[in-house]
Each structure stands twice: as C-alpha cells, then as structure tokens.
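Write out structure tokens for Ankyrin repeat domain-containing protein.
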Amino acid sequence: MNKPRPRAELLYELVRTGNIVAIKALCEEGASLE
C-alpha cells in the first residue's frame, strides 16, 4: 500500500516537474510554500 506523502515532498516534486497547475491547486487548498 502507498502511504500518503508529506505535502512538502509532493510540492517539491510538482515544482521539479514544472506542474504549475497542480501547485496552484494545492495553494488554493491551503498548502504553504515553506
């Protein structure tokens, strides 16, 4: 089973792959860009 990934790790992966749409969606959910 896949365990849920920490938000920061997920965010880093999205930035690395250039997935701006997903990043914006996460930000609207309340993710912080720390």
